[in-house]
Design brief:
This protein is of the alpha/beta class. About 40% of the residues lie in helices and about 15% in strands. It has a single domain, classed as Glycosidases (TIM Barrel). The structure holds (3S,4R)-3-hydroxy-2-oxopiperidin-4-yl beta-D-xylopyranoside.
Length: about 375
């Protein structure tokens, strides 16, 4: 039996395929502009990919992704909990599929992520002693980074090592390996993956204190003579309080370090956060109807606010196009966004450029418009 949603997806895929063949640049009933083409002289445009998309089981996504994006980041399948299943056991199935998918479509892969305190392998949850953590750390980087060298374009080598005040997070890595674990991670990655770009990635590092911490960390890696090619500002922001000034300062200050600047997990939530404003996947809160106001539809005023925020953001990105190498959205359509379940499970959020039916939203056109200014 074919469900309505599935039928719609097939129908849309057909429309989009028809659209791809067209040469018109502007939107019409059966064709939409391409983000990657619009920004081809400025920076790469990416999306996070989930399992169904990697396996091309999502027909509308299978058409839309190669049409719109020239770089992808796996949303979960290259994280340690998926890829490193036991001390000496690895499961490379999905990562290999992603690499094959990307090669087939001429798309680059940003691999995410080698060293992160979240989504650690189950077997590591019991491990407390420093020697074992060191062994895991070495084996993980040496094995995983080496396997994909030359197959992926880049790695988020270390993810989220900092606290909001710019100090180092007291993660299992810091506690077992000491302050230098970030430098060590890059040193090992540089050896295991000499042909792969190496990045530091974190959220809220556009904010002054955390930004200063990130700059100090990057300088420390550089001072050790270890290669770091770029920094990823995750970009989990909100449509109603976009920190444009801090974003601009962070582009300037990170670029001054002589490295690539990227926006790596962009989404603009339209919902209020009940707790602190963070992208810490460990911090979630309970559901109430009051904090899920747009269950059936997004009011036009909020839709317009979202479009304006995206337009302002991309105007800024275009101003700094010589410093910015990539902008990646954290998901393809609103229905697939992690923000429907974070920081509260089961809400209806609208943070991306494509709606739940894969149709481009006003925010999509606001972004496209900035490319030709
Ligand atoms: C999120 C994924 O989107 C979810 O599917 C998963 O359940 C939790 O992780 N910062 C990161 C990403 O670096 O890896 C996180 O991705 C979002 C926050």
């Amino acid at each position: 039996m074919i469900t309505t949603a599935r039928f719609f997806s097939f129908a849309l895929a057909t429309i989009l395929v028809a659209g791809c063949a067209g040469t018109k640049k502007t939107s019409s009933a059966n064709t939409i502009p391409s983000l990657k083409d619009a920004f081809k002289d400025a920076f790469d445009i990416g999306t996070a990919m989930n399992n169904a998309q990697i396996e091309e089981r999502d027909p509308a996504a299978a058409v839309l992704i190669p049409q719109q994006f020239n770089v992808v980041t796996p949303e979960n399948i290259m994280k340690a909990e998926v890829i490193h299943t036991g001390w000496d056991q690895y499961n490379f199935d999905m990562a290999d599929k992603l690499v094959a998918y990307a090669a087939k479509h001429g798309i680059k892969v940003n691999a995410h992520t080698l060293i992160w305190h979240s989504q650690m392998p189950a077997f590591m949850r019991r491990v407390k002693d420093a020697d074992s953590v060191r062994q895991y750390f070495n084996n993980h980087i040496n094995t995983v980074a080496a396997r994909y060298d030359g197959k992926v374009y880049s790695w988020d080598v270390v993810n989220e090592a900092l606290n909001e005040d710019g100090t180092m997070r007291k993660s299992i890595f810091l506690q077992s390996l000491g302050d230098d674990f970030v430098v060590e991670a890059f040193r090992l990655a540089q050896k295991a993956a000499p042909n792969t770009k190496l990045y530091y990635n974190d959220y809220n590092i556009e904010q002054p204190k955390k930004r200063a911490g990130a700059i100090a960390l990057i300088k420390k890696i550089q001072a050790a003579g270890v290669r770091i090619d770029g920094v990823g500002i995750q970009g989990h922001w909100r449509s109603y309080d976009l920190p444009l000034e801090n974003i601009e300062k962070s582009i300037q200050e990170f670029a001054a370090l002589g490295i690539e600047v990227m926006f790596t997990e962009l989404d603009l939530s339209v919902l209020q956060n009940p707790g602190p404003v963070t992208a810490d996947v460990g911090q979630t809160t309970g559901y109430t109807d009051r904090i899920n106001p747009y269950k059936t539809a997004l009011p036009d005023s909020v839709q317009q606010q979202l479009a304006k925020a995206y337009g302002d953001l991309f105007s800024l990105f275009m101003k700094y196009k010589s410093n910015i190498t990539r902008v990646t959205f954290w998901g393809l359509n609103d229905g697939q966004s992690w923000l429907n379940n974070f920081p509260v499970r089961g809400r209806t959020n609208y943070p991306l450029l494509f709606d739940r039916q894969f149709a481009p939203k006003p925010a999509f056109y606001a972004v496209i418009k900035t490319a030709s200014k």
